[in-house]
Amino acid sequence: MFKLKDLDPRLKLTWCLFLVFTALISRSIVLNGILLGLILVSELLSEKTLKSFKLLSILLLIIGTQVLIINLIFGREGDLLYSWGILEIYSGFITTSILAFLRIGIISLSAFQFGIHTDTMDMAQMLIHWGIPYRYAMLVPMTARFFPVMIGEYQSICDSQSARGVPCDTVVEKLRNLPASILPLMYRAMRISNDAALSVELRGYGRYASRIFQKKINLHPIEGVMIICLIMSFGGVVIKTIL
Amino acid sequence: MKPIIQLDLKELTFPGVKEPALKNIKLNINEGEFIAITGGAASGKSLLLHAITSAAPKFYPCQLSGTVKLADKDVSEIPLFQMADYLGYMMQEPQNQMVCRRVADELAFGIANLNLSPEEIRSRVNEIMDFLGIRAFSDRFTDALSGGQAQKVVLGSILAMQTPILLLDQPTAELDPKTSSELYRHLGQLNREKKVTILVVMDKSGEVLKDAHRVLVMEAGTVKDFLPVVDYQKKYGFGKNNRHAEPIKVDENTDVITLDGASHTYKGSITGCHPLDFNLKKGDFTAVIGQNGSGKSTMLKLIEGLVKPAAGNVELFGTRVTKKNVGALRRRIGFLFQNPDDQIFCSSVKEEIGYVLKNKNPTKDLTEEESNQKIQETLVLIGLDGLEEMHPQRLSRGQRQLLALGSVVISDPELIIADEPTSGLNGPQSQLVMEKLARLSSQGITILLVTHDLAEARDFANRIVVMHNHELVMEFEAAKMDNYIEDLVRLELIEGGDLKCLN
């Protein structure tokens, strides 16, 4: 069965870049709509649900509404439909808004899809394949681990400060008492990164020029063909846009 | 027997500090020995392990005179990344040492760096997962692990490297008694069956002494004693807790905390706790015990107003907790957290203790002189006088916990909630913290203590409540704990009827 997680990271990256650049180059609402549809279909085929897109979709709707309002007020494409004082509404605002919304949707959803369906170890291997020394390539999985840890630390610091009488519940309170939450977080970040650095060093990190990965990435011929197809399709879009 | 670790340290001094952090340490540790290391706050236990790994001075810049040899080789000549041939080192906080997102990748991290074949890596990882019983969560994210699981994964990652020496710095600090026993059982097995030399900085339970051969007692950066376990126990005793404060007086007519069917469920339908009915009277000293993940922290969060009850009510000082009054109610409470680093942020000990005075109403009218006097009294109370100007991050873990206690008691709270305040502390440090709490309790302050240490709960509290599977399942008088041993064994709070932890 088709699973995005099982695909080679190079194919997934090419797919992501193809979507992003095509969306940026093409001004066709139909093509952009198809691309967005392809993202959703590929997600559905792989995961049988669009649950992982839920939060991002809500954000996109909020952004989309703002884009619509901005275009409504400031858009100058198409025919003048309505005028009241300095406010002028042109007929092109809907198509411009839809195109902008589709582009933002494609860019964010494709990047998100690549991020959630690509193992960080696979990303590191991909970088190693491109000649980046493993000491640096491995920073990808290490950073990916560091973020959730620091989010947890920040939450527990806020809880702790809030309980001792330093309010950290609302955004305003968080800003007002920033030193009380940020300074411990910085100390924690330094301690964690220090401990992690010593721990990896003592486990032989950097001893040899290369390292072994438990699950090796392997580009199947069909995946290679798909990469070529994607590059050719992108070339087609570029030529069509220029002509 | 052949010595595998030879220490001849004359002095280890940090830049800008006159007094050496380690001095005059000369000792040999033989192959296959199991050594427990103990000592007071800032006695140099962790630093000694750093010196053995050569992290001090290679990683932590310092001046070291003398030699440290591992298997007859001077560690100053061994690059840090090559130390994996000699030893595995597990530091105090396991979550800090994990660098991979998935458990299986973390277990393989070290051996993959050694360029072993994929088959060998797989075989070693499988072997370790079976040995530590962690196969069930091999595919889990490392940031979603509980404290006990994280300890096992970090230990597994080190064990997979099959080093002849293991150094462990308080490996059971955050574990419940059952998980802690399990971990020591694994270590004992490794030492007996595979002749691995083990050095463990022991925690207050002293459970490691069951398997250890000798005990290294550190004091002020040097070796005070290096004795066989039997001699150590004769000389230092079992570190039994003794409450020296006045008896607890409970006012049965005044409620301080009331949980009336309060429950909480986290995002993703994860159970925090089932409906809890709990009452704490004025002057009470109640200990809450339970395994890791039994719901103790959620119960505290409900009381602190950090999470809302999904059902039921929470009352503090006879008033129902709401979003509006939670701030005012919190000002009457002192919270002592498990990890002091979550709250310490000022640049000196004095400033840190005094910071709370600015946020608490009753003391707002204090003059600067009065404030200073109060700070000084508190520093004396917690035993940190003389360290007023020191940066808190330069204190040892035990001292930072005492500092956190100081910043709690300075505001004269009516209720103190202490979440495992002695985790990571050794026997004398724990005794010190608990004695302070007991003294406050005898002055009429209500105490709610969450602990894994059953002896601590029995000796200092007057009442014990037990949480299991997110529910309050038992409640009894602390002095009558012996009558409930069978239940505690059934609830896996004492492993296999091992009662030594209570003696």
Automatic annotation (TrEMBL), chain A:
The keyword 4Fe-4S does not apply. It is found in: Membrane. Keywords: Cell membrane, Membrane, Transmembrane, Transmembrane helix. It is a multi-pass membrane protein. The chain crosses the membrane at residues 12-41, 53-74, 217-239. InterPro entries: ABC/ECF_trnsptr_transmembrane (IPR003339), ECF_transporter_component (IPR051611). GO terms for cellular component: plasma membrane. The keyword Aminoacyl-tRNA synthetase does not apply. PANTHER family: SLL0384 PROTEIN (PTHR34857). This is Cobalt transporter.
Automatic annotation (TrEMBL), chain B:
One of its GO terms (cellular component) is ATP-binding cassette (ABC) transporter complex. Gene3D superfamilies: P-loop containing nucleotide triphosphate hydrolases. Residues 7-245, 257-494 form the ABC transporter domain. InterPro entries: AAA+_ATPase, ABC_transporter-like_ATP-bd, ABC_transporter-like_CS, ABC_transpr_CbiO/EcfA_su, ECF_ABC_transporter_ATP-bd, P-loop_NTPase. It is found in: Cell membrane. Pfam families: ABC_tran. The keyword Protein biosynthesis does not apply. GO terms for molecular function: ATP binding; ATP hydrolysis activity; ATPase-coupled transmembrane transporter activity. The keyword Transmembrane helix does not apply. Keywords: ATP-binding, Cell membrane, Membrane, Nucleotide-binding, Translocase, Transport. It is a peripheral membrane protein. Belongs to the ABC transporter superfamily. This is ABC transporter domain-containing protein. The lineage of its organism: Bacteria, Bacillati, Bacillota, Clostridia, Eubacteriales.
